[in-house]
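Q: Could you write out the predicted structure for this multi-component system? I'm mainly interested in how the pieces pack against one another.
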Amino acid sequence: MLKVSDISEFDLINRLEHVLKKGATGIPGSYIETAIGDDAAVILPINSTQVVTTDTMVEDVHFKCDTTTMVELGWKAIAVNYSDIAAMGCLPIYSVITLGLKPDQFVQDIEDIYKGFTKISNSYGGEVVGGDVVKSDTFFISVTVVGQSSSGNILKRNNAKVGDLIGITGHIGCSSAGLEVLQYSNPMDMETQKHLIKAHNTPKPKLHDGQILASHGIKTAMDISDGLINDLKKICESSGVGAQIKTQDLPIDEHLKRAFPERHLEFAVSGGEDYELLFTGSEETIRSLKDQLKIEFNLIGSIHEGDPKVTVIDSEGAILDINEGGWDHFSSGKVT
Amino acid sequence: MLKVSDISEFDLINRLEHVLKKGATGIPGSYIETAIGDDAAVILPINSTQVVTTDTMVEDVHFKCDTTTMVELGWKAIAVNYSDIAAMGCLPIYSVITLGLKPDQFVQDIEDIYKGFTKISNSYGGEVVGGDVVKSDTFFISVTVVGQSSSGNILKRNNAKVGDLIGITGHIGCSSAGLEVLQYSNPMDMETQKHLIKAHNTPKPKLHDGQILASHGIKTAMDISDGLINDLKKICESSGVGAQIKTQDLPIDEHLKRAFPERHLEFAVSGGEDYELLFTGSEETIRSLKDQLKIEFNLIGSIHEGDPKVTVIDSEGAILDINEGGWDHFSSGKVT
């Protein structure tokens, strides 16, 4: 099979551009004037507030090539960035992508990564307008996404108020359980296994949910990438408040409970990469949101005065002493 | 000395943010509402055409840590992107930056890279609004820059017309000669050595020149990063024209001629990373540009009908057979 070192950088870029063009369905982004092929891509004026985020995935730190397909990897590399855009209450407009490639990687694999890019663009919008391909002894994918707000209401981390309720979209814990399943042998039925691995390898950015939150008066949100407690603590620190959550209210799905009857709570509070939206709002705003029935969410606790920390209450009403764990790459060396 | 693995990712990001804030002079970018500290940075509406570019530098592929300071490295990582923005006739607004760091790198070095970022931002504008720091076995810096056009005239590669003259700003060849000096021992005076190394390690993005070209009716430009012939060939391919240049008209400075009396031409035509602007325009437009005396440039040849290739004529009027050389990372493995 053809390797990256067998063809020129320009040939490779031409092939990847071809994958993008071939995979595109529907109309191209109306803001894009020129994409690949010049010193820079050209974007028409954007008359609304923009947001920009960047997130990089490194082999053997954020993913392993034997536990994901290359199409899934492409999907996820963009999905984790779209999740940040969703958490701001915005929609993606365009992305630029850098691939750090080892010379012995297969060209077909790189094309598959690009198929993953077109797949998620076709599902959630946004367009890959450019990038860079560099030689590297470590395989990595770096994505930058620019998004925009349609409501004008940008969701931030520093707006949580005392008395706010804490909400969370979807379910949590499945992604980190999926990583566990991929790394170690765990006896469980095929359907459950597939469900957990899917949560880990092809997360769905909650762009629709972010739009609903922003248009219904929510002011505070972030996405859960480093684990519920770690991320809620960031909202507390930014807003200068404390938070209390109850384990019995955490949205943990039946698959996860069945697969890990003893550990599902651990995955839900300390696991990462859920890419659900964590948000706060006044009782009134939350009630109005609930009445609309437009998104699936659960209330898991409330914001109160005090030090910026997260208190976890178990089903007996006792305070749980939970190691924050988390996803700190350098000091723990934990693969995330 | 403190290493990256001695502190948490969050501590490191806090330190880097501190370097940015401390180094900032003058007013912050008027388009930036929120920079570091949320899921995404927030940018106010930009009512003009935008351009976006991304460029990554990998250790031992694009730089070596023993031939550059970390402050210079930070400068260059942004400069090469600003050069693309300049080549579009635009100015930078904001950047996002990803660092791939080895756990044993010194925190002080990473802070110095950020000092390089503030240094170039203070000289040329634009603001670092966010980024990502990831663990990697290979040290790399990936930069994405968004810029905007003030004139509305975006300089492209595909506008060269038969009869156009070919211009080039500044001087070429010094950067690749500087790389040679850094890699091998070459007897020469200190001042010349310093001049060549400076051209390689801290290139100046020609943002002002790009502005002048765009506001004086030039339509075609690109920056020289892969070497004059390689890059001029790209203009030919995009525009469907041929080009002819004369070696006697190439702007080669005295330092380079003195240091490499036999090889200066080779550096000028095939060397890379000059980051000067290569442009074409009608005789009339070029004459008017020359009359304004606002930028330093030289005419090196002309555009004609024919295959998209570059013909080089020597001082005797003979066609030179020049190996295109170039900077193709994968197939040649050449360090660029």
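A: Regarding packing and overall arrangement: The radius of gyration of chain A is 21 Å.
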